[in-house]
C-alpha cells in the first residue's frame, strides 16, 4: 500500500502512484509576516510632508512672528547700513561711507574701549564667583533650595530697579557706600565722576545680576558628576583643592565654555545699566556720564539712531559691533577648547 502524501509547510507531496514528486502544496497564510508589514516611517513618507499640515499650521504663528519682528529687521538693518536715512525722508545710498566714517570716529572707539573694560571687569568676577558659590552650595546639606532662590533672585529682578538701587548706593553725595566710608574715617570716593569708578559701578551691577544665573548652571553640572569619582580621588589621597582642579574643572569644561560664551555676549551688550545711571541725569552733558566714561557701544548706537536720527550710521555701528562680538566669542571658544585638548 502506498504511503499517504506528506503535507506541510515547505514539504513536497509524493504522488500516490509512486511516480515521483507531485505539485508542492503549501498551507496558505492568513496574514502577512511581520517583516513584510509597512513601517510607520515608510507610510509617512508615502503620504508626504503635506499630510502633516495641521501640525505645521499649529506652530506657524511663532515662525511668522519671528520672521516679521526679528529676522526681517536684521536683514533690513544690514540694508540700512549702506544708506543715509533720517527716518522720514528718502533713503540715499552711500555704499561703504558709513563704515569708513565709523573707522575714523573717535567716539565709536571710545565706546568700544569702555565696553571691553566693563566686560572684563564684570565677566571675570562673575564666572569665578559663580564657580565658588556653586562649589560651596554643592556641599551644603540643609536649606539648599533657599540658597538657590536667594542667589538666583537678582537675575529675575528688573534691571531698571537694580540700576536705580545701585545709583542710590554709589551716589557721590548721599550714597550708602560713602556714608560707610565716612563712618570708618576713610575718604569718600566720587563713584559717579571718576572714569574708572564709573566702569566699576556698572561692572558691579552686572556681576550682582548674573552671578546667580551662572552659579545655577555650574551647580547642575556638579550634581551630575558621579560620587564614585570623588570617592576614588579621596582614596588616592587627593585633597579638596586638588580634587577641584583635577576632577571638577575638567569635567565642567564644556559647561564653562557655555557660560563663557553667554557671558561674553551679555557682557558686551550692556545698555540699560549706563542708560539708567547716566542717561537721564541733566547734570551730565555727555551721554554715559562725565567724560563719556560709561558710554557703551549699544548706548552710542541708541544715541546715533534715536537721538540724532541717523539710522544708517546706527545700523553700521550695530553691524561692526556684531563682528566684534563674533570675533571675541570665537577667541574665547578656541581658548577653552585648547585647554580641553591639552
From TrEMBL:
Residues spanning the membrane: 56-75, 116-137, 149-170, 196-220, 251-271, 311-333
Membrane listed as a keyword: yes
Keyword Membrane: yes
Entry-linked Pfam families: BPD_transp_1
Domain ABC transmembrane type-1: 112-332
Biased composition (Basic residues): 24-38
Main location, first listed in the record: membrane
Any GO BP annotation: transmembrane transport
InterPro entries, per database record: ABC_transporter_permease (IPR051393), MetI-like (IPR000515), MetI-like_sf (IPR035906)
GO cellular component: plasma membrane
Membrane topology label: Multi-pass membrane protein
Gene3D superfamilies reported in the protein's UniProt record: MetI-like
PROSITE patterns assigned: ABC_TM1
Keywords: Cell membrane, Membrane, Transmembrane, Transmembrane helix, Transport
Subcellular location(s) per record: Cell membrane
Stretch list, region Disordered: 1-40
Superkingdom of the source species: Bacteria
Protein family membership: Belongs to the binding-protein-dependent transport system permease family.
Identification of the protein by name: Carbohydrate ABC transporter membrane protein 1, CUT1 family
Native organism: Actinacidiphila glaucinigra
